[in-house]
Amino acid sequence: MNDEILFLVNPAAGSGTGASTKIRLETLLSEALPEARARCDLMFTDPHNLTEQAQAACTDYGTLVAVGGDGTASQVVRGIVQAGGSARFGLIPLGTGNDLARSLGLYDPRMSRSLVSLQRALAVVLSGWPRTVDVLDVSGVGCCCNYFGLGLDGQVLSDYVRSAGTPWFTAVRRSTGLKFALYGLHLVRRLFYRMPVGLTVQIPAERDGGPPTASERLRAVVISNTRTYAGGFVLDPAARMDDGLFEVTWIRSLLDIVRILLARAGPLRSMAAGLKSTQTDRLAWHAPKGVPYEWDGEPGSGALPREGRVTIGGPLWALLPPPDGTGHLPPGPGT
What we know:
By secondary structure, this protein is α+β, with helices and mostly antiparallel strands. Helices cover 30% and strands 26% of the residues.
């Protein structure tokens, strides 16, 4: 396989530290790894056509490395999948949520400010273990790495993105803590949100823990492939990205929202066990008009298709740390 590596760096990632991270990567490669530098190129991401940029790059590079958050990683993965999955995927996580990095064993909260952390991430890219991981194929939407959320999640994220376009957002955009606080405020505003009547989700009959009754007004349905979502909130701590299955979680009440919030703390992760969820490798949905949605932390750009399916897509070869003793993906620090 082609051993040329392209680092696609989002300059806005890491609360604006992406540009300086590109300089540090260039310095590390030039001074400490000159032989590797000869087969590495670095460029900034195209904010409007990143998926197309990544897809085109698969012609000339054997590995594409997303340097940024979940949104950057998701678009690079889409480009690789659309190019036929021929290129390997690497990740240097700089985002706010970093749910993909947490589930791949690559998360390090010090990445944007620690040279040692950046060196470790670079070592995984240059000599990591290539492993196949699952991606989700969502008909009418595209492929995604982390999760596809219907209802409350999509509504809150849309509210947050709209506020991010206001002039006063510049006061908080460089602080991860303030951005989480702003997101929390939008969540509080929407605590009593209910999805429109008529949403149905069909899962193969052999799977346990199917959907709630049709008459139940749900807050959200989260179709996920990672242990955490929305920046580290636990849905299923046992979820894996390499088992050929994804998780479907039904968020029905305020109590379910409280369970998710409390499960963020390590000692309280067992709270997530109270959520109604199931595992499957495929599902179909029928949705009424007006259901908001989001995928991989980005709001849906158009109306949700009235009917669609979610299946396991791919393949995607990712460069990861060595597997744990079970042969599965290792947990990362801070997961």
